[in-house]
Design goal:
The chain is of the alpha+beta class and about 70 residues long. About 60% of the residues lie in helices and about 15% in strands. Strand 1 and strand 2 form a beta hairpin.
Length: about 70
């Protein structure tokens, strides 16, 4: 671990948290059923917001993997 990879991991974590916290509370939920029973899905999250959170999550995962790699 070195300071650069640590800084990158911290920045990735902060970016992920910022995007995840920007998602509004559920506004509309849809009830569906499948073989495992009843499920509720939040359909009020804009696809762009969802994609931004997923992308920042992937970037954080990569930064954490780099952090764990021996230097």
């Amino acid at each position: 671990m070195n300071r650069d990879t640590l800084k990158a991991a911290i920045a990735g974590a902060e970016r992920f948290l910022k995007r995840a916290k920007s998602i509004p509370a559920p506004v509309k939920r849809v009830r569906t059923w499948d073989s495992s029973g009843e499920k509720f899905f939040d359909v009020s999250i804009d696809p762009k917001d969802s994609a931004a959170v997923r992308r920042s999550s992937m970037d954080l995962t990569r930064a954490l993997a780099d952090l764990r790699r021996p230097s």
